[in-house]
Amino acid sequence: MSNFEKKFGKYAINNLSLTLIMCYAAGYLIEMVLPGLFYFLTLNPYAIIHGQVWRLVTWILIPPDSSNLFFVLLMLYFYYSLGTSLERTWGTYRYNVYIFSGMLFTIIGSFLMMGYCYLVRPADMVAYGPSVFFSAVSPLFSTYYVNMSIFLAFAATFPEVQVLLMFIIPIKVKVLGIIYGVMLIANFIQGSAYSRFAMAASLFNFVVFWITSKNHIHMSPKQVKRRQEYRREVKRNTGVTKHKCAICGRTELDSPDLEFRFCSKCNGNYEYCQEHLFTHQHVK
Questions:
Q1: What span, in angstroms and rounded, lies between the C-alpha atoms of 284 and 281?
Q2: In angstroms, how far is CA 24 from the centroid of its own chain?
Q3: What is the C-alpha separation between 2 and 157, in angstroms, rounded?
Q4: Which stretch of DSSP H or E encloses residue 80?
Q5: 265 backbone dihedrals φ, ψ, rounded to 5°
Q6: DSSP secondary-structure letter at 247?
Q7: Nearest to residue 209, comparing CAs of 161, 158, 152, 145?
Q8: Which one of 13, 48, 114, 229 has the fewest beta carbons within 10 angstroms of its own beta carbon?
Q9: Contact criterion met (CB below 8 Å) for 223 and 161
């Protein structure tokens, strides 16, 4: 555990993937009820420096394309499953760092794009006006590529896991990761300069993750299960607890519903769970 995790780990958001999906749900609701409000939610760096600072947060509410509701629900469930698996494997703190760093890099990328426009492509802004121009390109900076980085991280962590492509064809995740990586490179080459900023910024967290973790991220589901069991055992044996049964050794960490009592007939401070309080042999 790093010093940062010791200091800030308590602030990590549990089940962050579900929180993101709830943000998308709020975004869909806004899109249906107040579609004009979307104009004021996008990550528009020009509007931000002119006082609309809420855009630094509200762009997270903008959901993926909603043209096919069934596909959207399927995709959200898929990414929820991937994100939950990564959170269980990496730990809540590291998964939080991964997601929020992707969002932070996206924000930084939008401002770098604005600087590029002023320094290299000022004619584009003159033709339409800065306000209109940045309103047009700001939707490029969304959580789409942040979600894609979740899939890439899953493919790098569980390369041998199989999924059913179109619910029929079994295929390993690493193959899908390679295919998607090739598609990203092609889109990066063929896309505009503005989309390149969005792609590079949003996926930079995966690049950092790959460079810092490539030697020890490949794990099988069995390895994940063994790691989780090991962590629970270590926590049980070394964690600081308030209660511990003198017979079975269970603590409040094993089950928060367990009740513990001291026995007045035993010599010494012997504490027992509710199952052994009246069945143990008294210590004399």
A1: 9
A2: 14
A3: 20
A4: helix 69-90
A5: -95, -10
A6: T
A7: 152
A8: 229
A9: no
pLDDT digits (tens, 9 = 90+) for 249-261: 888 777 767 788 8
The token duo for 99 is: 């997601």
From 205, 204, 187, select the one nearest 196 (Cα to Cα).
187
pLDDT above 90 coverage of the chain, percent:
9
Number of H helices, E strands in the chain: 12, 4
Length of the chain: 284
Distance of CA 140 to the CA centre of its chain: 20
Q: How far apart are CA 42 and CA 55, in angstroms?
A: 6
Looking at every residue in the chain, the average pLDDT score rounds to: 80
* pLDDT tens sequence across 80-123: 888 888 888 888 888 898 999 999 999 999 999 999 888 888 88
Contact of 147 with 206, CB cutoff 8 Å: no
**pLDDT at 132 > cutoff 90:** no
CA distance 55 to 43: 5
Residue 273 · residue 256 · CB < 8 Å: no
Instruction: Retrieve residue 48's tokens.
Output: 């931000």
| Euclidean distance between CA atoms 9 and 1, whole angstroms | 10
The backbone torsions φ and ψ at residue 76, rounded to the nearest 5 degrees and listed phi first, read -65, -40
CA distance 23 to 231: 31
Residues 6+ apart with CB under 8 A from 149: 98, 102, 202, 203, 205, 206
- Distance from C-alpha of 194 to C-alpha of 110, rounded to nearest angstrom: 9
